[in-house]
Design brief:
The chain is mainly α. The chain has 2 domains: 6-77, Multidrug-efflux Transporter Regulator, Chain: A, Domain 2 (Orthogonal Bundle), CATH 1.10.1660.10; 85-123. The protein is built from 6 helices and 2 strands; from the N terminus they run ααββαααα. A two-stranded antiparallel sheet has the order 1-2. β1 and β2 (39-40) form a beta hairpin. The protein is elongated.
């Protein structure tokens, strides 16, 4: 198999080995693997890395945003959920009085934050 190791690819492209692993993890570039599992970067991967750097510079956004855009393209349920949220118009629940809506939302946030905190404490 012909190609550059991750360290050679890093030296060639200016991306660090850590960033190359991240780029692979989010699915933006997929290097080949040797029988032993080592990454090999060929001309196709080097071109993707070069054009990736150009795209990021030209459009002023980051790898995380591009990785998320890729997920939106590949995961229809995620795309539908994001589209639904973007299209949704905030609406006061019918059972909540106009004067109570702000307090009601604050209490919902407090409950959500408490649940997240409790989940984090269970994991730790």
């Amino acid at each position: 198999m012909n190609g550059l190791t991750i360290h050679e690819a890093a030296a060639t492209t200016g991306w660090s080995p850590r960033m190359l692993r991240y780029i692979e993890r989010v699915g933006l570039v997929e290097p080949a693997r040797t029988a032993a599992g080592y990454r090999l970067y060929g001309a196709e991967q080097l071109q993707r890395l070069r054009t990736l750097r150009e795209l990021l510079a030209r459009m002023s956004f980051g790898l995380a945003e591009l990785g998320f855009a890729l997920r939106l393209r590949r995961e229809p349920q995620l795309r539908e959920a994001v589209d639904a949220w973007l299209d949704a118009v905030p609406e006061r629940p019918a059972e909540v009085a106009v004067d109570d809506w702000l307090r009601w939302e604050q209490e919902k946030h407090e409950a959500l934050l408490a649940a997240v905190h409790n989940r984090e404490m269970e994991i730790a």
